[in-house]
């Protein structure tokens, strides 16, 4: 009887452990980024418009914000600050962000942010859309609070602050995991202290990245609800190299989100400065080792019975290894999206194979494509098929072109004065 009871207890413990492991993999431990489109953003645009109705005043305020934001963006990117027609702006604007607004019966006062589609705005301004961006960088945000180190083991304020951050104006191409699926197992506080390149190569390949960025914040609280001090460190790579640090303080716990949002902006500035200074250069130890070349013994070749020559064998080997591997990141809201995207890419001339290697339904999946040709040619073929393509080299991110925003705005083809 005791043996049976002991066996039952062990079986129950095994079931509990298994359920706990499953829950850790299945449950979401983070927050998905609010915007990963890479659009140009102009924030803090103030408008004050009067009209006959509140709706007319609001639409007028949005149109005025578009004009002001375009001038600011054009000057920031070195294009002179010239205006374009309102009809063209309607084609370029991908979203309006309401930072603060007051709506009256005949008046609209607001502070707005305007998002411009990166590719279309760059073509109008005559600049390259992605030439100034870094290689894809996997973001692993570490929060230390009360002696507890947290990445995706559970939801935390630091990861949420990075999810709120709009990356369109940054030169860093961030890859921001959302904490779903296996994120809490692969990206945790313990992994940051492991310099082993083999496992890091596996992880960054899983997320379609080329390197690692580790923003760290240590939070110190004087007493519950009181002042909070944040010590921020920008770190890089599998060796956890320190790039820079700074300290911020807020008067009460209610100001913690603002403290962290400011910390994210300053952290991004440190990463961009390191990129310009060459501190985020290519780490060859994170690149996969080259495949060994075939060794052919000339003495083993028999030409007497019409066998292949050495040149023919070498040519056959070269053709068998033709094609370069390209990692394609794509959205998979459902199972049908996987088959549809694979079928579309396989139909492109030069594509030898297209296989989904990492599936995340409702999120971002990875596809390995073997392509005979230049990745830029594959990019062009995808764009012709209605995709927006970002990234560079052998890592591409594709998404369907969004609907144009804002909706229901009247067209005005005359240049604004």
**Ends distance:** 92 Å
Low-confidence stretches: 1-27, 313-320, 403-412
Report the portion of residues in β strands: 25-35%
Form type: globular
How many alpha or pi helices?
A: 12
Average per-residue pLDDT, rounded, comes to 79
- Tell me the helix content: 25-40%
Task: Write up what this structure looks like.
This protein has 417 residues and is an alpha/beta fold. Helix content is 34%, strand content 27%. The protein is built from 12 helices and 15 strands. It has helices spanning 2-26, 54-76, 86-92, 118-125, 157-164, 183-186, 189-192, 197-206, 256-276, 310-320, 335-346, 375-384, and strands spanning 40-50, 93-103, 107-116, 136-139, 142-145, 148-150, 173-175, 211-221, 228-236, 241-250, 324-332, 351-358, 363-371, 387-392, 395-400. The strands form 3 sheets. Strands 4, 5, 6, 7, 8, 9 and 10 form a 7-stranded mixed β-sheet that branches. It has a 5-stranded mixed β-sheet with strand order 12-13-11-15-14, covered by helices on one side. A hairpin with a 2-residue loop joins β5 (142-145) and β6. α5 (157-164) packs across α9.
Task: Write a concise keyword list for the protein shown above.
seven-stranded mixed β-sheet; globular; alpha/beta; 417 residues
Present the secondary structure layout.
Layout: H1 2-26, E1 40-50, H2 54-76, H3 86-92, E2 93-103, E3 107-116, H4 118-125, E4 136-139, E5 142-145, E6 148-150, H5 157-164, E7 173-175, H6 183-186, H7 189-192, H8 197-206, E8 211-221, E9 228-236, E10 241-250, H9 256-276, H10 310-320, E11 324-332, H11 335-346, E12 351-358, E13 363-371, H12 375-384, E14 387-392, E15 395-400
Parallel strand pairs: 4-7, 4-8, 5-8, 11-15
Antiparallel strand pairs: 1-3, 2-3, 5-6, 8-9, 9-10, 11-13, 12-13, 14-15
């Amino acid at each position: 009887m005791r043996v049976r009871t002991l066996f039952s207890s062990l079986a129950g413990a095994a079931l509990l452990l298994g359920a706990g492991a499953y829950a850790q993999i299945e449950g979401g431990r983070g927050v998905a980024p609010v915007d990963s489109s890479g659009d140009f953003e102009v924030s803090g645009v103030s408008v004050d418009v009067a009209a006959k109705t509140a709706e007319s005043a609001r639409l007028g305020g949005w149109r005025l914000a578009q004009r002001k934001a375009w001038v600011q963006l054009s000057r920031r990117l070195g294009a002179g600050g010239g205006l374009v027609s309102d009809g063209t702006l309607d084609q370029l604007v991908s979203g309006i962000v309401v930072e603060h607004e007051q709506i009256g019966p005949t008046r609209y006062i607001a502070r707005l942010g305007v998002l411009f589609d990166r590719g279309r705005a760059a073509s109008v301004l005559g600049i390259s859309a992605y030439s100034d961006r870094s290689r894809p960088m996997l973001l692993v945000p570490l929060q230390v609070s009360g002696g507890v180190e947290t990445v995706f083991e559970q939801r935390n304020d630091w990861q949420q602050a990075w999810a709120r951050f709009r990356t369109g104006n940054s030169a860093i191409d961030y890859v921001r995991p959302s904490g779903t699926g296996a994120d809490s197992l692969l990206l945790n506080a313990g992994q940051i202290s492991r310099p082993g390149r083999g496992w890091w190569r596996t992880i960054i390949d899983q997320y379609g990245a080329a390197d690692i960025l580790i923003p760290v914040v240590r939070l110190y609280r004087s007493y519950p609800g009181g002042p909070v001090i944040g010590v921020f460190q920008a770190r890089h790579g599998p060796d956890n190299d320190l790039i820079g640090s700074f300290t911020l303080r807020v008067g009460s716990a209610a100001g913690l989100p603002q403290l962290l949002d400011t910390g994210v902006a300053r952290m991004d500035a440190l990463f961009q400065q390191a990129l310009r200074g060459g501190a985020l250069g290519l780490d060859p130890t994170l690149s996969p080792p080259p495949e060994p070349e075939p060794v052919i013994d000339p003495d083993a070749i028999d030409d007497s019975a019409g066998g292949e020559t050495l040149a023919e064998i070498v040519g056959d080997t070269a053709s068998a290894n033709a094609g370069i591997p390209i990692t394609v990141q794509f959205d998979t809201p459902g199972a049908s999206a996987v088959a549809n995207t694979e079928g579309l890419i396989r139909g492109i001339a030069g594509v030898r194979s297209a296989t989904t290697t990492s599936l995340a339904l409702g999120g971002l999946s990875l596809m390995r494509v073997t392509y005979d040709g230049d990745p830029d040619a594959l990019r062009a073929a995808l764009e012709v098929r209605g995709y927006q393509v970002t990234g560079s080299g052998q890592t591409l991110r594709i998404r369907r072109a969004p609907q144009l925003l804002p909706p229901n705005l009247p067209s005005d083809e005359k240049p604004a004065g």
